Amino acid sequence: MATAQMLSLAWPFMIAVTLVVSPPPLVAAATEWQYRIVNDSATGLSGRLEVIPPGETGWGTVCDNYFSNTDALVACRSVYPDRVFNRARAHYNYGGGTGPIYMSEVGCSSSAQSLSACTYKSAAGCTHSEDVGITCYDERWEVELRNSTTTGAGVREGVVFVRPNDYSEWGTICSRAVYNAVARTLCGSLGFDLSRTLPSLVYDAPTVFSTAVPESAPVYLTYVDCSSTLPADGTLNNCTYYDTDRTGCFGNAAVGLKCLDTG
Fold first, then answer.
1. ω before 12 within 30° of 0 (cis)?
2. Digit-coded pLDDT (tens) for 220-248
3. What CA–CA distance (Å, rounded) separates 155 from 139?
4. Burial of 187 (0-12, 13-18, 19+ CB in 10 A)
5. pLDDT at 152 over 80
6. Range 100-126 average pLDDT
7. How far apart are CA 145 and CA 159, in angstroms?
8. Taking a C-beta distance cutoff of 8 angstroms, is the pair 28, 56 a contact?
9. How far apart are CA 106 and CA 33, in angstroms?
10. CA distances to 50, 107, 109, 124, 139 from 112, in Å
11. Fewer CB within 10 Å, N- or C-terminus of the chain?
């Protein structure tokens, strides 16, 4: 309700002024969980995680205590419920936010679709220096082979080039700790009938296939592992891999592939 205040000014004015003071507008409390990423990248997929729980009126943050990559994946699904993410990473370098710290020790199952389905504790003892950030990955890996040598009928082989989506540049897979089941998945991605294909990895591939890897080509993946029981239509999206530790992964370390159709 507005209140009126009388203000009398001294001579020579002798004027009574009525000031109408209105209270600040009320902010409606949230009726359901809300989520967002702030300080984000151009894609909107990386930044500090913020939430509003039901009954609260302002954005707050999430403490990084025990916040795992699985929790980050569920957070990505929460922010973008209409998108499909293959993986996510928890980060701690997007700066502290303001306001309440609503959640700590978040625990989500890998199948959870929203942070509201996860367990958590109060954030007593947390400070904004512990605000968690996330990066959401929605790769749809494409694969091609590059080879300057001659191959026989029913064989495709060459240096493996991959890219996470159709607007990214082509890069390579580091041959360090890449397991044999990866060859099967890569041949399947290239359209080979896996029931009659002999897949194999090739090391030192740029030399073997006389194919130079551009210096500017990113090394996207290392420590790649795919299940040997993946269905025939499985892709790199169904595999595990690292995309950060690339020590020793230079051009000649790019992995190669040979797919031999025995049919």
1. yes
2. 888 888 888 877 777 888 888 887 767 77
3. 28
4. buried
5. no
6. 94
7. 5
8. no
9. 15
10. 18, 10, 5, 25, 20
11. N
- Name the nearest CA neighbour of 218 among 162, 172, 158, 154: 172
- Contact of 206 with 251, CB cutoff 8 Å: yes
Q: How far apart are CA 196 and CA 177, in angstroms?
A: 26
Q: Classify strands 101-107 and 60-62 as parallel, antiparallel or unpaired.
A: parallel
Highest averaged pLDDT of the listed ranges 7-16, 62-71, 133-142: 62-71
Neighbours of 208 (CB within 10 A): 16
CA distance readout (Å), 45 to 90, 133, 143, 177, 212: 12, 10, 23, 28, 33
8 touches 16 (CB < 8 A) = yes
Mean of per-residue pLDDT scores for the chain: 85
Asked if residue 164 lies in contact with residue 239, where contact means CB atoms within 8 angstroms, the answer is: no
Share of the chain above pLDDT 90, in %: 51
> Terminus-to-terminus CA distance in the chain, angstroms?
84
- Residue 135: beta bridge partners? 46, 89
**How many whole angstroms separate alpha carbon 62 and alpha carbon 97?**
9
